[in-house]
Structure formats: structure tokens, C-alpha cells
Amino acid sequence: MEVTRSQLDDMIPQGLSNCLWASAKLQSVAPEVLKILPAMARHLPGKLAGMKPQELAICLWAAATVRDDSPQLRQAVPAMAAAVKDQAVSFDAQALSNSFWASAKLKDRVPEVLVAVPPLAQHIARQAANMTPQQLSNCLWSAAVLRDSAPHGLSTVRPLAKYIELQVGKMLPQHLCNCLWAVAKLERARPEILSAVPGIVRLLPCKLALLDHQLLSSVCWAVAVLQQPAPDVLNIVPALMDRILKSELQEFDVQALSNCLWAAACLQDSAPSMLTAVPVLASSAADRVQRMLPQDLSNCLWAAATLRDSSPEVLEAVPALATHIPCKVDKMASQHLSNCLWAAATLKDRSPEVLRAIPALAKRIPYKVQDFNSQALSNCLWASSHLQGSVPEVLEALPAITDTIAQNVELVISRRW
């Protein structure tokens, strides 16, 4: 598929926008279409000034959709974001929703896209009444993803919540799931979003059969996070367990397994029916630890420690987890390290194989201890005292832990740090 420079020079802005849209739509079924993107990306910045608002939004949406397959198109994103920022006042509801979604998708790969978020958020708040259910769901999901990197997006939450409540009955299962996940991400920053939960909870149980494994795990995670601020969410659990137990767990990816096991640990007291899924989840996790990311390993080991008494079948996964954690400690965040050390100390008598992970954890913790919060520091000190007889190497982390506690002792004691 060849596109000449003269053909692109002659292409009007609308034509370029249409080609990008078509390429993004076709990439999964005809990946050869991606070959035309480098040439189009080079010409795109010079065409942006002549584009209408809808065409700009389509270009940004296309860049987000093919973000992993076209580094050349990603290079054009800063220019697109600047143009979107300037024209956001003229965007309709669809263009705003698409651009907001694209900003959330691109924020890590091209952080310059975040300049478009404040004006998009301002106008989304005014256009929420005109949005379809899918657009409302996409905007709420985007606000959740952008929560930390672009807090201006939080200004959309109140109007989105209002109209989601009105349109929740028209949402597809994926929209309901995405909304519930977003509510769980946003409830601390914007507690008013909790008003959307009752409508979602009323409709979601009968839709679970239509969710794939990734969406099911998102629902599990959201239910665990929302159990205290929105206890109505626990009404989903019986149908959720029925759906998971009827699923082919080999179709679950490792992140989905990790999320479900973590959720079961969090919900064991408030929704004990979750425990019925633990044996099969633990068995599946044990078979696939080699594919897990550091966070997945940490979540599973923490879940095993938390579930050790109520669902001892979870201990089946511990030897495999302990074997693979040392290979991933260098990529673990501070919370993952502290959770693993606490879990190892908790599990040492029930599953002594967990001790294999201690030397690598102890060696890595001093490099991350300054990022630990008060809970992590106190957990690590407790764990070190319980492990020092079994694995003396744990003491390698102790000077860094105690020095950090000494520097922040009042906050550690009060847990206000």
C-alpha cells in the first residue's frame, strides 16, 4: 500500500482525517493498513489548522486507538492536542467524549496530550445532557484514568453522575462495568459519584453473562473497593460468583485472576460467598505465575496471606509465587514490596516455601523505603521481627526501615503519614 507525497499534499484536511479514522478501524482485521500511517503522520501537523472540530477529534481518537502500533502518529499528538485545546469550545458531545477518551489513553505515552484536558472538561460539564449512554460511560472512565495526572477532569464527575443516573437503563453491559470501575476509582476524590451506584447495581447482575473475563475482574475489584462507601454493591456478589464459577478460567489473563483473588480476600467478611471461587482461582494462578507482572504477584501473595484461614486452598499458589517474586522485585513499587514482606511473615508457618522470596525483598527494600507510607513501614518492621529467626537476611533491610521510621516517628505512630 503506497501513498505518495503528492497525494498527501493534495489531500484536504477532511480526507486526511477520514483516512486516519479508517486506518484505526481496520487495524485489527487488516494490519497492513498501518503502513500508510507514517506518511500521514508527517503531513498531519500542517493540515490541523484547516480541520473542523469533528475532524480534529477523529484524528486524536485515531492516534489513541493505534497508539502502540504507530510511533510516528504519536509524534503528532502534541500538535493535535494544542489544536483540540483551542477548538474545544466548538466541539459537540461526541467530539468531546472521543477527545477526552483519547487523552486518557495517551497520557502515559504522550503526556503533552494533557494540555487538552482542562478545556475538554469544562465543555463536557456543559454538554453532558446531550451525551449518549456510551459517551457518558467513556467520559466517566476517562475522568477516573486521568484523576492523578489531570485533576481538572474531576470537574466533569458531578454532571456525568447526574445524567448516568438518568440513562443507566440504556447502557450496555460494558458501559455499566466501566462506570462501576470508574466510581471505585473516583469515590474518594469525588464522593458525589456514589449516587450512580444503585442504578448500576440494580441492572448489572442480569448482564454478567455478557461480560468477558477482563470486565468480570474489574467488577470484582470495584465491588471490593466500594463495599464500605456503597454497601449496596454487595448485592452483585451472588451473581458474580455464579458467573465466575461457570467461566473457563483458562480464558482469564493473569491480571484478571490476580484481581479476582485480591477481591475475594477483601470481601471474605462482608461477602463470604466470594470464598467459593478461591480454590479454582488459586489453582489457576499457581499455573500461570510466570506470566504475572510484579503487581499481580504482590496481590496474589497478599491475598494468600489474608485468606490462609478462611480458604486454606489458597496456599497451593504460594510456592510458585515465592519462586517468581525474586525475579520481579526490581520492578516492584514500594507498596508491592511491603505487602510481600508482610505476607511472607504471615505465611511462614503455614507455607514455609514463602521464605524463598525474603532475601531478594530485603535487598530491594532499602532502595524504595523512602517511598513507604506509615502503614508500610510498620508492617515491614513487624515482618522483620517475625522473620529474623527463619531468614536472617531480612535484617539487611532493617537499618533503612528504622532510619526512615526515626525520621518520621510521630507520623508513623499516628498513621497520618
TrEMBL record:
GO biological process, one term: chloroplast rRNA processing
InterPro entries cross-referenced by the UniProt entry: FAST_kinase (IPR050870)
GO molecular function: RNA binding
Signal peptide positions (record): none
GO CC field: chloroplast; mitochondrial matrix; ribonucleoprotein granule
Entry-linked PANTHER family: FAST LEU-RICH DOMAIN-CONTAINING, LD45607P
Official protein name in the record: Uncharacterized protein
